[in-house]
Amino acid sequence: MTTPLVVSELSKSFTMHLQGGIRLSVVKNASFAVRAGECAVLGGPSGAGKSSILKMAYGNYAADSGQIIVQHGHELIDLVTADPRTIIAIRNSTIGYVSQFLRVVPRVSAVDIVAEPAIAEGLAPDAAREKASTMLARLNLPERLWQLPPATFSGGEQQRVNIARGFITSHPILLLDEPTASLDRANREVVVEMIGEKKQAGTALLGIFHDQEVRDMVADDIIDVTGFAPARAA
After folding, report:
1. 72, 193 contact by CB (below 8 A)
2. Closest listed residue to residue 179, CA positions, set 54, 94, 71, 37
3. How far apart are CA 65 and CA 51, in angstroms?
4. Roughly what angle, to the nearest 10 degrees, separates helices 125-138 and 110-120?
5. Residue 89: phi, psi to the nearest 5?
6. Which residue range or ranges hold the ABC transporter domain (predicted)?
7. Which of 27, 43, 107, 219 is the most buried (most CB within 10 A)?
């Protein structure tokens, strides 16, 4: 079994500019690996650093130190030291991401938003839109909404667009930040099925799930991030 994502001695702090430049350490020496075909879940209370770790794994946050080694094609790339062009290339073909919130260009239809990552991956536009339509139908988004921009959609509808966009590609690594938070039970079950299919296809998944029931159904490994908490002064 391959290991496409390896995190070693990863640390992150933030500078509080409105508080005299105080540096707040949030993650210290995080180390773990995510294997192909498995879903690893970041566990721990709110504020423990789960989202920071996930954002570093996508290149949204810069790490202070450590390594995030990604299998990108036939190369091993360290995201901590990778340049922006390399990070964009990795996002296009290696790492997918489902965030808590949908951030898209206004006036772009839901089906085109979902299709865009598949087109970036190399799928023809018509085939990508057909695949996007299939994903939206599976997630029970009404067809009358597919050609509309999702800015006016409900939170649950926007999240289904977000999930379809993240799951449409065949990226070998998929990051999930609370993908079921705004969903009803029926659509949570669909997402659990989709996660299972990704695992069967050999995708390595790293996620945050506050829903205990969903976490229990999808997790192969739970990484307790409290073990990466910085020491606090007494």
Report:
1. no
2. 54
3. 17
4. 120
5. -60, -40
6. 5-233
7. 27
**Which helix or strand (DSSP H or E) is residue 112 part of?**
helix 110-120
| DSSP secondary structure code for residue 169 in this structure | S
pTM for this prediction: 0.91
Q: 3-class SS at 73?
A: coil
Contact 149, 185 (CB under 8 A): no
**CA dist 48 to 24, 51, 57, 63, 124, Å?**
12, 8, 16, 16, 42
CATH classification number, 1-17+24-94+174-234, choose in 3.90.550.10, 3.30.390.10, 1.10.530.10, 3.40.50.300:
3.40.50.300
| End-to-end Cα distance, the chain | 44
DSSP secondary structure code for residue 44 in this structure: S
